Amino acid sequence: MPCRNIVPKSVQKPHPPIWVACSRRETIHRAARNGVGALAFAFLEPEQAGKWVEEYYDIVKSEDCVPIGHSVNPNIAIVTGMSCHSDEAEAIRRGLDGFRFFGYSLGYYAVFGEHKPGQADLWQRFLEVKEQLPENAGRGGIGTPAQLREHLSRYEKAGIDQVMFVQQSGANRHEHICESLEIFASKVMPEFKEREEARAAEKRRELAPYIEAALARKPRMPPIDDADIPRVEAFRRKAPSPIVGSDRGGAISIPTQDPLLRHG
Question: What is the DSSP string of 176-200?
Answer without folding.
Answer: HHHHHHHHHHHHTHHHHHHHHHHHH
